[in-house]
Write a sequence for this structure.
């Protein structure tokens, strides 16, 4: 894990001191709200429906136990005892008072965390594969590169007042677990034919009002070219991107309107000059950062305890089969802790749960935790012999739900329960769907199925890339939910197809139930997932289940 | 033809707490919609909004919100305003949980 050096600490302390003074000047009436707003946004502070909201970055989703303990402290001391983990590997506090925020930021600073650039038209929190450093299918740990990008982009003078926000993700897996193709810019660590490791750069992906799949801008960059190439890309967009219309300001529109070839040519031209300004110090820095991410000392031990618990405890077995992923080290497993207990708010964890997770990581998990874009918590390095104890501790904290990748493992944005931009609620829809399928006891039979819910077209809930996407809208003063089908968040990224007319708030859960029951009838067997069945059959047969009345009328 | 004016209240968020507040006819702010000034005249509503928005050291983002007068007093006409005056639906937090003592003068 990266540990702040004296420079980082001094930088953060100074930023926090500045923000404290800005808050004081706002309260004293020396700054207007118009003057203060960009300053608070730069420090992650929003004003939402019921209160302020502080969004704290968890760079590339990685946390130490001490950092998780501090997130718990913030929840307990300055909020209402919980926090909300988001689809961009951030945590949001929904109830802070303006006067408390400087103290919250100081507390975060103590453990090397901040809320800088979690809002505003800047380069946002850099996200990464949540299994980084642990996944068996990974070329190398993508986090050193993500940390390098974080350091380069933080307070970068050229990129503080851009036309719009800019999101970057990094991954090195055979599988894409970081939704690379839905990012403004994505870095995929690859090996070329000569056997050298380098970077494939994708650009122009994004969800929101105009969803687009990212395109390859450069197929292979040598290591030393990455940062100047990203700088050239952001710089070209920052200059030619539209500022006349915020809905056309993101780089996906720039690439679309300019054309990929022309955009690439401009980036290459800029790259030639930007490259001259990089002396190679970034590569020295990367080497230093890489040392921080040295793998933990994995131990070689028998797994007898695991085998016997697996054979004798069916609840443990179900959890193991659902929530564990293969680790690259023999005898180890990656544990995904679901914070999607049926009926609870997706992504929410209480202060006590955060402390329990921190303690498990300290005791059994090499002091590491991750937050996934799917709004769950990951213990990336657990030896199998410790799994029975980990499971028992998770049970005590009510964190043992075995539903990863299943129908109740729903992504949901805060929606109109909190968000000032939302047009409808998301959370209660997610709660009701999860509760309903738990009652039906069908979810393990249904298998892998991703439902993603957004409460407005900005698509924080990634609905476009959900196998089933739900978009909450305001139709003539009433909540209305549109369903999209066939979205995919992996390398085969696809934008889901709109199924038809929307559903009222009290109709959406029964509609999803009909749809999933329809899939169970339509599939060739339990091996064929919802998405595979959809790809084989197309929209029509699923539509018949979603809109039975229409079918009856037509017949 | 311009759309007919619908009755309004002035609402905003409190500067320090960030919570939802309403403008009263005494130029103060209340956390209780029932105590808000009910504005039925468009010109008067615009003037009152200007006056409310001048209290920059107390409030953020004052605006006019559609409201109607029902059997139980003032009621929001849009569900967004209903959530603002109640709180979130996933937890018993926000206005629905606030004690009655907080009624009255806000900021």
């Amino acid at each position: 894990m990266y540990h702040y050096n004296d420079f980082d600490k001094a930088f953060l302390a100074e930023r926090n001191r500045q923000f404290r003074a800005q808050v004081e000047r706002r309260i004293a009436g020396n700054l207007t709200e118009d003057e203060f707003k960009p300053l608070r946004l730069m420090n992650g502070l929003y004003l939402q429906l019921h209160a302020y909201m502080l969004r704290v970055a968890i760079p590339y989703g990685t946390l130490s136990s001490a950092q998780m303990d501090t997130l718990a402290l913030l929840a307990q001391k300055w909020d209402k005892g919980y926090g909300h983990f988001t689809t961009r590997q951030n945590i949001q506090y929904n109830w802070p008072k303006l006067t408390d925020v400087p103290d919250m930021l100081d507390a975060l600073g103590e453990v090397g965390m901040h809320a800088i650039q979690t809002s505003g038209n800047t380069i946002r929190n850099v996200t990464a594969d949540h299994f980084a450093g642990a996944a068996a299918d990974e070329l190398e740990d993508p986090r050193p590169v993500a940390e390098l990008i974080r350091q380069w982009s933080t307070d970068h003078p050229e990129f503080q007042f851009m036309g719009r926000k800019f999101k970057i993700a990094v991954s090195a897996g055979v599988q894409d677990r970081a939704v690379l193709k839905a990012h403004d810019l994505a870095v995929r660590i690859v090996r070329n034919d000569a056997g050298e490791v380098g970077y494939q750069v994708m650009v122009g992906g994004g969800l929101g009002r105009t969803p687009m799949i990212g395109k390859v801008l450069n197929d292979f960059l040598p290591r030393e070219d990455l940062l100047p190439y990203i700088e050239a890309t952001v710089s070209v967009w920052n200059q030619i991107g539209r500022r006349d219309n915020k809905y056309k300001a993101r780089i996906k529109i720039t690439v679309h309107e300019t054309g990929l070839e022309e955009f690439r040519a401009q980036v290459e031209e800029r790259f030639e000059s930007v490259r001259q300004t990089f002396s190679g110090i970034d590569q020295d820095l990367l080497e230093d950062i890489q040392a921080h991410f040295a793998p933990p000392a994995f131990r070689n031990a028998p797994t007898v305890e695991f085998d016997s618990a697996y054979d004798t405890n069916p609840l443990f077995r179900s959890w193991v089969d659902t929530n564990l992923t293969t680790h690259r080290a023999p005898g180890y497993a990656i544990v995904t802790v679901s914070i999607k207990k049926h009926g609870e708010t997706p992504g929410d964890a209480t202060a006590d749960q955060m402390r329990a997770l921190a303690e498990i990581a300290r005791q059994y998990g090499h002091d590491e935790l991750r937050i996934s874009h799917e709004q769950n918590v990951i213990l990336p390095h657990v030896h199998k012999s410790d799994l029975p104890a980990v499971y028992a501790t998770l049970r005590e904290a009510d964190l043992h739900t075995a539903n990863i990748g299943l129908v109740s493992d729903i992504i949901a944005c805060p929606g109109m329960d909190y968000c000032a931009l939302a047009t409808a609620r998301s959370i209660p829809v997610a709660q009701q769907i999860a509760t309903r399928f738990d009652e039906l006891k069908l979810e393990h039979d249904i298998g892998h199925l991703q439902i993603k819910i957004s409460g407005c077209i900005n698509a924080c809930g990634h609905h476009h890339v959900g196998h089933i996407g739900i978009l909450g809208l305001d139709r003539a003063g009433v909540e209305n939910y549109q369903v999209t089908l066939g979205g995919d968040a992996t390398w085969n990224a696809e934008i889901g197809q709109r199924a038809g007319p929307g559903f009222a708030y009290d109709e959406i859960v029964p509609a999803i139930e009909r749809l999933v029951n329809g899939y169970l009838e339509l599939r060739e067997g339990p091996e064929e997932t919802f998405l595979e069945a959809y790809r084989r059959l197309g929209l029509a047969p699923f539509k018949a289940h979603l809109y039975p009345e229409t079918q009856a009328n037509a017949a | 033809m311009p759309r007919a004016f619908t009755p309004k209240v002035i609402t905003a968020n409190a500067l320090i707490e960030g919570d939802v507040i309403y403008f009263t006819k005494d130029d103060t702010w209340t956390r209780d919609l029932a105590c808000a000034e009910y504005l039925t005249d468009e010109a008067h509503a615009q003037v009152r909004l200007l006056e409310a928005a001048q209290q920059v050291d107390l409030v953020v983002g004052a605006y006019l919100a559609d409201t109607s007068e029902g059997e139980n007093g003032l009621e929001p006409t849009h569900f967004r305003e209903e959530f603002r005056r109640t709180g979130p639906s996933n937890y018993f937090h926000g206005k629905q949980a606030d004690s009655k003592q907080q009624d009255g003068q806000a900021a």
In short: Residues 42-53 of chain B form the longest helix (12 residues). Chain B touches chain A at residues 13, 15-20, 56-57, 60-61, 77-80, 83-84, 87-91, 93-95 (CB under 8 Å). Helices of chain B lie at 42-53, 79-86. Confidence is low (pLDDT under 50) at residues 103-107 of chain B.
